[in-house]
Amino acid sequence: MDDLPPTPITSLTPELVQQLREQALDVLSYLVKTNSATTYFKESDVLPQFRAALHLTDGSHKGVRDYSAKELFEIYHNNVGLSVYKDYLPTIARFFEHPCNKSSVENLMVPGLPVFIAHSSGTSGGAAKYFPKYRHPEHMSRATAETVRHAIPQSSNAGKNCIIFSLACRQVVTPLDEDGDIAKHIPVCLLTSGLGRMENNMLVEEDAFSATLKIPNYSSPVAVSFISNYKSFLFMHALFALVEPKLETISTVFTTSCRDLCRTIDDHWENLVHCIETGVIPDIEGIEHVKDNLQRFLQSSPDRAEELRRIEKLPGWLKRVWPQLRAIPANASGPFSTVIPEIRHYIGPDVSIESVAIASSEAYLAIAYDPRDLNLYKVVGSDDVIEFLPVDEPEESKYLAQSWNVESGRKYEVVLTMRDGFWRYRLGDVVEIAGFDPRDGQPLIRYVERRSMHIRLANEVTTETQLRDVVDATSNLFGGVSEFCVTADYRQAVARYAFLVELQGDPGANISAVPAALHGQLQKHNENYLKDSRVGKIGVSCVRVVRPGTFGDFRE
Q1: pLDDT tens profile 163-191
Q2: Among 63, 68, 240, 447, whose Cα sits 20 to 30 Å from the Cα of 94?
Q3: Whole-model pTM?
Q4: Peptide bond into 48 cis (omega under 30)
């Protein structure tokens, strides 16, 4: 924490306003001039007014380059409405046609063919969404580069890093050229998987070779990243991490994955130590295709095994497993904050947990600003045009605010015009402006919630943030909540909220008081819940404590 950022400012100087404006105009100008040549731009039902204002109604993109950045921004600002995923689905569906012809998908969203297609993890519910991802020039890839730098810190002491990312693919799209030959192999995978491939130049058609490699300073061989079975994937990362006494960082996308790794080590401790002692990869589910490559990198180490066996499982015991462990880069804000106490039980108070970025399958929005604050991020405006829709205004594009005129303390939904071909796309994430970076004026934000995530039984609407606050207020009664979800329970005459909860340890001594306590907290945080519950429209909450590992099984 030697390089701490400057204290945020609450308002912008005229010079910073001009700097932000010029950057946004330059990014937009590049996006319009580049992506106006694509199929989506020419055919989209979202953009006819924009095309007409640019005098492109004949389908040509000639003349776009004649506009100045200022002129393009004014035309864009007044003629592009808000969009949602369904506006892009018919176009993106062309990648999944059988057969998939290159002529149908080339220059679809962005000129050329995508490097990979990111699919959503499904945490927001509903069917997965798909986002073609393209290779962009360096000046349009700074947010990605900054995120990678934060997620994979460099060691000055020859230490090792446990980098937990997957290279598994949901499928591979293979567009055919006019001769019927495969023009390109396009993996369909998580955003982190695709970026991992892109950063390390790992083509999907070369996976067999990639699985024989081990990246310097990574604890795990690449073969571990090709394991689709989540439990086996964690077991192997745990095994190779335990082999390394000089492990310095454990990098996971979210704190929940770090917690799952800690539990895997705890639950399978004897088996893991035995594998280190014998140097033998065990027969576990889902590793058959990479077992030989894993075995090549595991050598018998009786001394390390004996060293591990001497460690007592007292609070913070993983710090004794890895004395040089210093940081866990993992997103720890919003819903991912609830598992931090359980992670602390394993790693102790001295290892830094550091949020990395606000990212989604669509784009990287912001990077962590201050390692001391897990929910403070700096917007990166170099890759996409980032706009802000006030949550207390009508949901129309004319109310959008820009990075240079957002208000500190106000809440906004994020709207993106993306380098990957989406236009004023509603991300659905609500953030609060927490100030500005005095060095370049970029807004600093705190994640609040998903705008569409709420529960309603009667006249009340209870948001994601309110539910987190309710659970936080009753966590001690539970005995420490690790993860939870909430659904509607209509099994009785009066509907009620049902909380499904996974605990950090044993149930609290007063856990029987939890349903009434939750009910009381909901009444405290939501006035309409209070009114409806008092007149008998909402009953006392139902609670079900699930077995440890249930949420991890769901992630699998």
Answers
A1: 998 999 999 999 999 999 999 999 999 89
A2: 63
A3: 0.84
A4: no
